Amino acid sequence: MLAATTSNEELGEQIAKLAAEIHAATARFLHLIGEFDARAAWGAYGIKSCAHWLSWRCGLSPEAAREHVRVARALRSLPLISASFARGEISFSKVRALTRIANEFNEEQLYEWSRYGTAAQLEHLVRGFRRAKANGDPVRAHAQRSLSWYRDDDGSLVIKGRLSPEDGSVFLRALEEAEKKVDVSADTSANDEGSTPWERRRADELIALAEAFSGSETTNKRYDRALVVLNVDEVALTQPAMLHPGGAVSAETARRIACDAGLIRVSRERDTTIGRRTRVVPTTMRRALHQRDGTCRFPGCTTRTVDAHHIKHWAHGGHTALSNLILLCRYHHRLVHEGGYRVRLTGAEVRFFRPDGSPLDVPIARADPRAVERQNRRVGIAATPMTCASHWDGGPPDYNIAVEGLFRLEADASPG
Q: Does residue 152 share a domain with residue 129?
């Protein structure tokens, strides 16, 4: 507990000291991850990868788990940065940035930057170096293309993409063409928040592009729209509804969508079954199964490309019923059939068992709040409030010289 008499300065010193302790502990955490990954020790649990195991056992998101594994692998060949990290001198944010470009030839220079620069400055340096390399390599620019998205807290879809310069031009040209078909008369409301009229207009253009490919148009009436599933109370239409995949909409939005939409009834109050008539899961039951499970049900797996699995196989007398079905990705579907794993579904609870019969459950870990500090002392790390402080003097960093220096090191390391 924090004493009421603790001054602001003492509070700040405690925070800075604890930050260094956490950095050192994180370095050990990543060292162990690197060893665990190198041994492929995660394979004994029916897990697909080290990142999958971290997501299951350590509570990390899949994205964060993959990033931790990437950094752990990189640190195994970067002794200077690893040692500084282990002493609590640099943070995970700094290490994460450095390991994107660090190698045996530029590690020493990057290490110096890590001690004097802030995490934001290191990110800026790394981005500048990678951008300078990509500008002269069109193959690399194309290889780095990407498109990702996630649902924000309010259900809105947030999109992030990266295209090569020429593909980007094609995309922008398509947006310009879509602009000719978008009604922007309602895009000038002064009450709209969170974006400028220009940004809202571009969003409308993107929707126009999507609609152009989601179905055909005949005499300005759209038919055969791409299927979007809306879970809603068909009687009242008064409660917020869920969209699949992901997201929630208000009752009024649900009513607008329902104005011109087909109705598919899916029962969630009772079990849906077709008994022993066929082992093939029909479309309506598969839709209900996807709404119930969403992704692979194996612990920690979030794969959405899935099969419907009969828990008691149809050949052994099992029924084609929701109470006897779960979703499994191809990897874990094979693991259950050929790998000897078993699964049991009781109501909404799914439990998996290893081939030896032991349950694949996550044990509860209890943390000791002072364990990090004690462990640091045992390995000779005595963190102070200044251990992880940046030595930046406040002057403007010269990123051009830094990037030029990295290119020079790279050129010196090249053969010939």
A: no
List, for residues 145-181, the tens digit of each pLDDT value.
899 888 888 788 899 998 877 788 888 888 888 777 6
Is 264 within a domain? no
Long-range contact pairs involving 294-298 (C-beta distance under 8 Å, separation at least 24): 294/327, 295/327, 295/329, 296/327, 296/328, 296/329, 296/332, 297/326, 297/327, 297/328, 297/343, 297/350, 298/46, 298/328, 298/329, 298/332, 298/335, 298/352
- Specify the residue for token string 């045996």: 104
Task: Write out the two tokens for 70.
Answer: 């990437």
Looking at the fold, whether 19 and 98 belong to one and the same domain comes out as: yes
Q: With the CA atoms of 94, 98, 99 and 101 taken in that order, what torsion angle do they form, in degrees rounded to the nearest 10?
A: 160
Q: How many Å apart are CA 11 and CA 6, to the nearest integer?
A: 6
Contact between residue 300 and residue 50 where contact means Cβ atoms under 8 Å apart: no
- pLDDT tens-place string over residues 316-344: 777 888 888 889 999 899 988 888 889 98
> Which domain covers residue 207, as residue numbers?
146-222
Unique residue bearing structure tokens 């008064």: 238
pLDDT-derived band at 294 (thresholds 50, 70, 90) equals confident
Contact between 234 and 265 (Cβ < 8 Å): yes
- Residue 320 identity: T
- pLDDT exceeds cutoff 60 at 270: no
Could you tell me the pTM of the whole model?
A: 0.66
Mean model confidence pLDDT for the chain: 79
Token reading at 106: 């530029």
Residue 313 inside a domain? The answer is yes
Regarding whether 349 and 375 lie in a shared domain, the answer is: no
Instruction: Mark whether 91 and 186 lie in a shared domain.
Output: no
Q: Which of 176, 204, 222 is the last residue of a domain?
A: 222
Please check whether residue 147 is in contact with residue 161, taking contact to mean a CB–CB distance below 8 angstroms.
Answer: yes
